[in-house]
Amino acid sequence: MGKIPNNSCAIARSLEVLGGRWTFLILREASTGSSRFSEFRSGLGVAPDVLTERLNTLVENGVMQKVPYREPGERARFSYALTDAGRELLVVLLGLQQWGDKHLPWPDGPSFLRQVEGTGRPVHIGFIDDSGNEVDERSVALVPTVAHPRLK
Amino acid sequence: MGKIPNNSCAIARSLEVLGGRWTFLILREASTGSSRFSEFRSGLGVAPDVLTERLNTLVENGVMQKVPYREPGERARFSYALTDAGRELLVVLLGLQQWGDKHLPWPDGPSFLRQVEGTGRPVHIGFIDDSGNEVDERSVALVPTVAHPRLK
Predict the structure, then answer these.
(1) pLDDT value at A80 more than 80
(2) Helix, strand and coil percent figures for chain B, each rounded to 5
(3) Using a CB-CB distance cutoff of 8 angstroms, which residues of chain A are in contact with residue B7?
(4) pTM to 2 decimal places
(5) Which residue in the set A9, A17, A19 is minimally distant from B111, CB to CB?
(6) Across the interface, do B106 and A149 touch by the CB < 8 Å criterion?
(7) What's the number of domains chain B is made of?
């Protein structure tokens, strides 16, 4: 894990690591099967130096890990896989997807459906309380703690 | 609503509108009570020209709306309030918070707790199927549709 960003706000810390459009799109590619540098490059059309820098940042911060592989007759290389922490970002990524499909709709409709594997039931992203019940967004309260700078 | 970004991926379209760290932090401030330009400025320490540009982008894209107000003896001004679409981004914002508090922890602990208003029960962000049951992240499948460029 890299150095934890110096900010008491967890949203700001996450954005220090994930900041920037390319990072979320790299995570999208990794979530839909890309693992090799060439796959990320062709999936995103991103400049190689930007891609290298973003992948390194994600590895340093424990979001992705390097996995060695070697094709017959070629030198050893690395592919990139999501860590457990990286997979936990799926909820953020699919939250962006859900919002974009609703509020910035595409003429042909959504390019991906979110489903429960096996049953095919549709899945959405939302708020859940500790007894497993969905909570309406208007009932979610953000309560500042003693760790909040305004209360220090 | 502004022009919808020209990309079949809903994640990419959302990021065109929301892209950049400041935008998410403006939404954080709006979700915790800021509405005036001066409040966003002092809460974020952002340069005024950047703040103006980001607020305008959010208004153009239907995430925030301008609300006129006038202090006694002063000229009419505008404050900025989240629209319904803007409030629906709370799930993304608090997804980033949840992830940052877990994977990039702050020594003093979380600066905000997510609770159900009234009951105080803790709230997390997750996946929910159409019968209201929480779905484990490993059971969520992304199924490409005919709108996906690779299937055209």
Answers:
(1) yes
(2) 45, 20, 35
(3) 106
(4) 0.93
(5) A9
(6) no
(7) 1
